[in-house]
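Here is the promised in-class demo. Please do not try to memorize the tokens; focus on the logic of going from shape to residues.
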């Protein structure tokens, strides 16, 4: 069994698929000092969209993907499954951005 340190050092990318980083579970699943040798990071957490994990990864120069994209496309796909209609993704993004402002 590898330690977190060994796994992070050998990885090209990092994935957080835990609740750590959500509003109710603050923190980061991977310590900042283990981030930087990788190319990318993905966080499945989408509330908040910018987690400590992603902020650390971005500041270390990694390409980051927020859990917001997972959340967005789950909704888009579910809408189509349940209604049989496609969503205009660009229009939906614009509406969501307006509602957050």
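The designed amino acids, position by position:
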């Amino acid at each position: 069994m590898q330690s977190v340190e060994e796994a992070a050092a050998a990885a090209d990318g990092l994935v957080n698929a835990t609740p750590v980083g959500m509003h109710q579970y603050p923190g980061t699943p991977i310590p900042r000092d283990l981030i930087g040798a990788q190319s990318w990071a993905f966080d499945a957490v989408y509330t908040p969209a910018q987690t400590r994990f992603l902020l650390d990864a971005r500041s270390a120069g990694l390409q980051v993907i927020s859990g917001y994209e997972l959340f967005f496309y789950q909704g888009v796909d579910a809408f189509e499954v349940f209604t049989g209609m496609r969503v205009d993704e660009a229009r939906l993004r614009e509406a969501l951005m307006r509602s957050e402002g």
